[in-house]
Amino acid sequence: MITKCLFPVAGYGTRFLPATKAQPKEMLPIVTKPLIQYGVEEASDAGMRNIAFVTGRGKRAIEDHFDVTYELEDQISGTSKESQLDCIRELIDRCTFSYTRQTHMRGLGDAILTGETLIGNQPFGVILADDLCVGEPDSVMAQLLRVHEKYGCSVIAVEEVDPGDTDKYGIVSGQPLEDGLMRVEHMVEKPSPQEAPSNLAVIGRYILTPDIFDILRNTPAGKNGEVQLTDALHTQAKNGKVIACRFRGRRFDCGSVEGFVQATNFFFQRHQTAA
Fold first, then answer.
1. How far is the C-alpha of 200 from the C-alpha of 140, rounded, in Å?
2. Residue pLDDT, tens place only, 102-155
3. Residue 20's CB: how many other CB atoms inside 10 A?
């Protein structure tokens, strides 16, 4: 049973300036909930209730969000607004939260290695909150967990992207296993369309085995001078230890303004339907 999920949330969110000048991008709202809450709900629903954050300077609002706010709760106690906090109260009661800081922005691989102190020697999930996912019928993380339970190795979520956009993603190729699954043989970080081995892109959902930490420690800086998780996963893949899962559902790239607006419209329509 995998119980821990790591959230790398130390990035600056420069694509949303000036909105992210003084607040974490992960706290930008999709309708009435911040982006990070959707990710924590997905982890919790998949049974991962030990939530670990790799944060940075200026991210205090994330810690405050997953905590009790006595003044606010006292102010709205007994009013019609009190029920609006039910979903976050349930998360706070259900999960435990731990935090460590990434002092220098050296890439996703370095962020995950920074989280080793919170994870320990056990398999764990990783959610990148920028990728807001809606699974069908189960969440994307729940789908990855089933694959991990069967194969016992690292599992990554992938989807087809426009061939012209391969330079925005880690791209994978390999041998088909069964419907929707592939044993990964090659992984390349942000290749040009001419160099890409496929148009299957890794998105922000992973199940990682704990040997990834030693691999990351010995992985030299790659693209853009950063420690790339893709490079470490490629090392695992050489030993047949990475499965790519073409998940069922939809992903919104909320790291981009266009994807953020698409997600807002989608969840607003869902919110209106439920009202």
1. 16
2. 988 888 999 999 999 999 999 999 999 999 999 988 999 999 999 999 999 999
3. 18
| Whole-model pTM over 0.85 | yes
Cα-Cα-Cα-Cα dihedral of 202, 206, 207, 212, to 10°?
Answer: 80
Determine whether 262 is exposed, middle or buried from the number of CB atoms within 10 Å of its CB (0-12, 13-18, 19+).
Answer: middle
Q: Cβ distance 192 to 167 under 8 Å?
A: yes
Alpha-carbon dihedral 248, 254, 257, 261, rounded to 10 degrees:
60
Name residue, tokens 């089933």.
Answer: 146
Helix axes 140-151, 35-45, angle to 10 degrees: 40
Radius of gyration of the chain (CA): 18
Give yes or no for residue 28 having a pLDDT over 90.
yes
Q: Give Cβ neighbours of residue 126 (< 8 Å, ≥ 6 apart).
A: 5, 6, 7, 8, 112, 204, 205, 206, 207, 208
* pLDDT in the model for residue 5: 98
Which option is the CATH number for 4-274: 3.90.870.10, 3.20.110.20, 3.90.550.10, 3.30.1020.10?
A: 3.90.550.10
Read off the DSSP letter of residue 219.
P
Tokens 């496929």 sit on residue:
198
Domain boundaries, the chain: 4-274
Using alpha carbons, list the distances in angstroms from residue 179 to 2, 187, 242: 24, 20, 16
